[in-house]
Write a structure and sequence with these properties.
Elements (H helix, E strand, L loop, with lengths): L2 H22 L8 E6 L4 E5 L14 E4 L16 H10 L5 E5 L2 H9 L19 E2 L8 H11 L4 E4 L3 E6 L2 H13 L1
Length: 185
């Protein structure tokens, strides 16, 4: 196994672990996905279009796509929202991980148009309110994804009206922890 294969293997393992943690925390049920960018190859590993239970996700369930959202080999298909991920990675060089979840309270805040603000001690990392993306439709095109990234700006989280929350960070562990802390706050 080459060094690049070890990196890829480890990345897939950590991504699968992130999904299972998000399921245990109630952030994911049947919808949502996580991804990570390999900074060496600039390729993205994302949870494939999946109809099975997310608590059973394994490293093999992640596929490789390029920054245009096209799969790199294999028969598995990327999720419809692959453009959400590729647009963020294209715009934000500081982001190497994205967690897109459907947590209960954060989703409600997005539906009613209320920003989450730093009120509790476990959310002191928030410097300002988390912005809200007002379009409730699925991010299924590159154009919609660009609008979403404009709203995200330099923030590390974005509420999506009726569609959950996106957190971004340098590592999948950080993006996962952000999702947990924001929902608990």
């Amino acid at each position: 196994m080459t060094v690049m294969d070890q990196t890829t293997s480890e990345l897939r393992r950590v991504l699968a672990e992130s999904v299972r943690i998000c399921v245990c925390e109630g952030l994911l049920e049947n919808f949502g996905h996580v991804s990570a960018r390999d900074p060496k190859s600039n390729r993205i590993f994302i949870l494939r279009h999946l109809h099975e239970r997310l608590d059973k996700v394994m490293p093999k369930d992640f596929i490789e796509v390029n920054l245009s959202g096209r799969k790199v080999g294999g028969k598995l298909e990327p999720p419809n929202e692959v453009f959400l991920h590729t647009a963020i990675y294209s715009k934000r060089k500081d982001v190497n991980a994205i967690v897109y979840t459907h947590p209960f309270y954060s989703t409600i805040f997005g539906i009613v148009g209320k920003q989450i603000v730093p009120l509790l001690a476990n959310c002191t990392f928030l410097q300002s309110a988390i912005p809200i993306f007002d379009d409730p439709r699925s991010i299924g095109t590159a154009e919609m994804a660009k609008t979403l990234t404009d709203k995200l700006g330099s923030s590390f989280a974005l509420l999506m009206r009726g569609s959950g929350m996106v957190t971004v960070a340098g590592t999948i562990q950080e993006a996962t922890l952000l999702s947990i802390l924001i929902e608990k706050s």
